[in-house]
Model the fold of this input.
Amino acid sequence: MGAMITMGADDAIIQLLHELADAKTWPERFRLALEGGIDVTGDIEEADRQIEALEKRAKETIKKLGCVSPQTRAISQSMADMLITWFTFKDNLRA
Done:
């Protein structure tokens, strides 16, 4: 029974990592849409809320895993990459 719980937790971590990686691609999609003259203001605002939710989930997962878990590093790095990409994009919008 313990293996089933671990497998579920592993699946949740894999899903989170996929979501973080996907969110990292959003700025490029939005940039291309903006260059094409498409108004994506509402989509960017929604993505901002989703980014915040992903960051919160990642931090909660890291807290549950603890600092010695090998998955903690992967989640931390993916979260940081996502946030750097997102905030760079948003800063460029203001420039």
The chain is about 90% helix and 0% strand.
